[in-house]
Specification:
By secondary structure, this protein is an alpha/beta fold. It is 36% helix and 26% strand. The radius of gyration is 18 Å and the shape is globular.
Length: 259
């Protein structure tokens, strides 16, 4: 897949800091993600990957720095050089263009697969139910679950539930998709079916930021690979370069354990 580099970045992070109490989790993250780019974030547990991902759609607030999605500050407006948090309603409005898929599928257990996919377009975007249903059927077909639209989450495997979660995120027609270790809760034999859906999204040109331990996926699908450790970006580059010839000792030590 060819990344567009001439357009304005979809994501721009400038010296992003985040602490939980006295623990500094992000220590000045600087990153940009271009339209159509698939950026994979890798690193040991506790390195700040998931926290940074959650900051992108304001599920976590930042303490310092600036974080933009399409040149709009995420969750804030700037007045007199200071950040002021937006109302929840304004945050939700800006968040509509960002889809997110979590480790755990977070499906509504009392709703069918199709109802899970159509809930947000109907309730948030006020789409007519029939329009949302038609699109939901298309999306379930797209993720290979056309025959499961009437099934409840408890009747689906973990891989199927995660594919429903991807379809649900796509139902809001996002321009950016965030994946927080989407295969880590799955049995090994189910990982491939989820990665295949993500691979197809990448081929369709979806801008994606993926926190993952799946190095094969990062190598084959990613346009850029970012290695984070202890709240900082240690190394970034093309996946083949970082995986094949890491420049930093911390990167080499991590990859020697996971490859």
């Amino acid at each position: 897949m060819t990344t567009t580099t001439t357009s304005a970045p979809v994501i721009r992070a400038e010296s992003v800091h985040k602490s939980f109490g006295r623990t500094e989790v992000l220590k000045g993250i600087d990153l940009t993600v271009s339209p159509g780019e698939v950026m994979c974030l890798v690193g040991p547990s506790g390195s700040g990957k998931s926290t940074f991902l959650r900051c992108i759609n304001h599920l976590e607030t930042i303490d310092r720095g600036r974080l933009y999605v399409r040149d709009e500050l995420v969750g804030y407006e700037e007045r007199d050089g200071k950040l002021h948090e937006l109302s929840e309603k304004a945050v939700a409005r800006r968040r509509q263009g960002i889809g997110m898929v979590f480790q755990r599928f977070n499906l509504f257990p009392h709703m069918t697969a199709l109802e899970n996919v159509t809930e947000a377009p109907v309730q948030v975007r006020r789409e007519p139910k029939e329009k949302a249903r038609a699109r939901g059927v298309e999306l379930l077909d797209r993720v290979g679950l056309a025959d499961k639209k009437g099934s409840y989450p408890a009747q689906l495997s973990g891989g199927q539930q995660q594919r429903v979660a991807i379809a649900r995120a796509l139902a809001m027609e996002p321009e950016l998709m965030l994946f927080d270790e989407p295969t880590s809760a799955l049995d090994p034999e189910l990982v491939g079916e989820v990665l295949e859906v993500m691979r197809a999204l990448a081929e369709d040109g979806m801008t994606m930021v993926v926190v993952t331990h799946e190095m094969g996926f990062a190598r084959e699908v990613g346009d850029s690979l970012v290695f984070m450790d202890d709240g900082v970006v240690v190394e970034t580059g093309r996946p083949a370069d970082v995986l094949g010839a890491p420049r930093h000792e911390r990167t080499r030590a991590f990859l020697s354990k996971v490859l």
